[in-house]
Design brief:
Length: 616
């Protein structure tokens, strides 16, 4: 390589490194202004609230539950210290705290987190000021309720929390409210129900700038990941409006209100998510998504769902919440009432899946092919290799047609140049004669673009599928080397961090990205061998950069990529090498038949005039 090519590679590498280290410090930071806090105090429970709780706005069951809980308060059996209560549904182990009646742990049974040697924790980054399913009186910026609630475990899968408060309105006048939170679960279901019940002693209702209260998802979704190194992991805000789902990737320290209407919303990662689905979406205000850094430089990923203000004494709001895998087989059961214990349907929550958008149909076909192969060969890594081979075989005719089209274009070049010279001053005549030449030669200029477009669409769909397919999570290909197709391969793990290198790549040595870069360079060299003379000048430098510089850039991008994705790219590159060798031989034979010679090699050290003369 000459000096210019080396400098291009070095400078490109420096730009990538700088972007990884510096850009997050200067961009994407936006914080919301905090208004005056809503003052909430636990009220003296000696006053008789039981009579008030018979208001007809609550159903009989709710009235009875709140009345029983109120009687406990009247007897002054108020817990002095925080308590923890556990419910196990078979698919989730849920731990509640009496502080706010919130969730402090939500582990998905059967979904392992190798970093903690435990189940995946969906209630991550829990703190004194931020918990799962916490309520805040007022908007998203308000502090969560932190008082100790009374509770009653109604059965093995149902728990009720309740507390009476004195809450000041925007004018400073205090009102008495009894707040109840009832969680209901079904065995072996990822979906559960939360009822939020509020009773006021007068008809003041709750209104803080148009909002009554805010319900929160978890501060962050597990498994915990390194945001600087795991660039193929992400956190998304989801909002569905009845037609399509809006997906917004969250940047650190960003707090932003979603301005459009929505039917349900939540937070998702590549493999897990938390959705909030109200039974009455007309009560929803504007949701807010937050990525504030609250815990040890680890940004939140939280949706805060606002409930519109109301007037009157009582409200009883019901929310269904899906806390579980972001996979089709777990989500689609909630599209059909007969398929789930809740009889839940009509919300199209499969729209929350990570797909290729308008290319989803192609992704469905590829996924179907993978699953058929897996029934015969129970190794997802082998299935990736086989389906890549099948796709390459199917697309070989397109690659051949594209290459032969470029050869046909070379054959027509002398005639095209003659036409361009002859009709240089008449653009209309030039187009007519050029079109006539193509028709006589039986050549369609677009024929080379269509195969390339189709291959691009397939590559895009494959990329999204292999980067997000839930079945790859924890799937082993080769023991010890590739134990998990959803993560990078492992050759050796350094015990100590290496300055700069560990910040970029972590402490794990991987070999798949190295093999991938080598295959990219070989593929570029083989493609370049079709025209070994090159174009000279700036074009030749560009070609060298594409051959040597781009693969090294990809090395930085793909180093921590999921091994399933890299396995696809690597297999595709190796097969491309074979295909390109075959196509090169076919093109060489065709050149000989039509009398097209390869471009003569231009010596590097000739003066510009001599180079131009030799090319002629």
């Amino acid at each position: 390589m000459d000096k210019n090519t080396i400098w291009a590679i070095v400078l490109s590498t420096l730009v990538i490194v700088a972007s990884y280290l510096l850009l997050p410090r200067f961009f994407g930071k936006k914080t919301a202004e905090a208004p005056a806090a809503v003052e909430i105090t636990a009220e003296d429970t000696q006053t008789n609230q039981t009579e008030i709780l018979t208001d007809t706005m609550f159903d009989e069951e709710t009235t009875a539950l709140l009345s029983e809980a109120e009687e406990v308060e009247e007897e002054n059996v108020v817990p002095a210290q925080e308590e923890k209560i556990t419910i196990n549904t078979g698919v989730a182990e849920v731990i509640f705290t009496t502080k706010g009646g919130d969730i402090v742990s939500y582990k998905l049974v059967g979904h392992n987190d190798k970093d903690t040697n435990d189940f995946v924790q969906l209630s991550d980054s829990i703190s004194e000021t931020n918990r799962t399913c916490a309520l805040a009186i007022g908007g998203a910026e308000s502090k969560i309720i932190n008082e100790i609630f009374n509770y009653e475990k109604l059965d093995a899968n149902t728990i009720l929390f309740k507390k009476t408060f004195s809450i000041k309105d925007s004018n400073g006048k205090a009102h008495s409210y009894t707040i109840g939170k009832k969680y209901s679960f079904k065995p072996n279901e990822y979906m559960f129900k939360l009822d939020v019940m509020i009773h006021g002693t007068d008809a003041a209702g709750l209104n803080y700038n148009g909002t009554a209260y805010t319900l929160r998802t978890s501060p962050q979704i597990g498994p915990h990941y390194n945001q600087k190194q795991s660039r193929y992991e992400y956190r998304q805000f989801l909002a569905y409006n009845g037609k399509k789902v809006k997906k917004v990737n969250l940047a650190s320290n960003l707090v932003k209100q979603y301005e459009k209407d929505f039917l349900w919303g939540g937070i998702a990662s590549k493999y897990f998510m938390e959705l909030v689905l109200p039974t009455d979406y007309s009560i929803l205000g504007k949701p807010t998504y937050s990525a504030k850094v609250e815990q040890n430089d680890y940004a939140n990923a939280q949706a805060m769902i606002e409930r519109k203000s109301y007037s009157g004494t009582d409200i009883s709001d019901s929310y269904y919440l899906y806390f579980g895998p972001r996979e089709e087989k777990s989500l689609k059961v909630y599209n059909v009432a007969d398929k789930n214990a809740w009889g839940f349907s009509g919300y199209k929550i499969t729209e929350a899946l990570s797909t290729s958008g308008w290319l989803s149909w192609l992704e469905v076909i590829l996924k179907w092919g993978l699953e058929i192969l897996h029934k015969v060969i129970p190794n997802w890594g082998v299935c990736i290799i086989i389906i890549t081979i099948i796709l390459k075989m199917l697309m070989f005719p397109l690659s051949k047609k594209q290459s032969m089209g470029s050869l046909k274009m070379q054959e027509l070049q002398p005639k095209l140049q003659a036409i361009q010279k002859k009709y240089a001053g008449d653009q209309q005549k030039l187009q007519q004669e050029t079109s006539k030449l193509y028709q006589e030669a039986g050549y369609n200029p677009a024929s080379g673009c269509l195969p390339m477009l189709f291959q691009f669409l397939v590559i895009f769909a494959m990329y999204n599928l292999f980067n997000n397919y839930f079945e790859f999570r924890g799937a082993m290909f080769i023991p010890k080397w590739i134990p998990d197709l959803s993560e990078g391969d492992v050759v050796y793990t350094f015990e100590k961090s290496i300055p700069l290198i560990s910040n970029l790549f972590g402490n794990t040595l991987r070999v798949l990205p190295i093999i991938y870069v080598a295959s990219q360079i070989l593929s570029g060299k083989l493609t370049q061998s079709m025209n070994p003379g090159g174009a000279g000048g700036q074009s030749e430098k560009t070609m060298k950069f594409m051959t040597y510089g781009m693969p090294f850039m990809f090395f930085f991008i793909f180093y921590n990529a999921p091994s399933g994705l890299l396995l696809y790219w690597l297999t595709s590159n190796i097969l491309q090498l074979g295909q390109q060798a075959i196509i090169n031989k076919m093109m060489a034979k065709k050149r000989a038949e039509v009398g097209i010679e390869k471009t003569p090699k231009v010596p590097k050290n000739l003066p510009p005039k001599a180079k131009a003369k030799q090319k002629k």
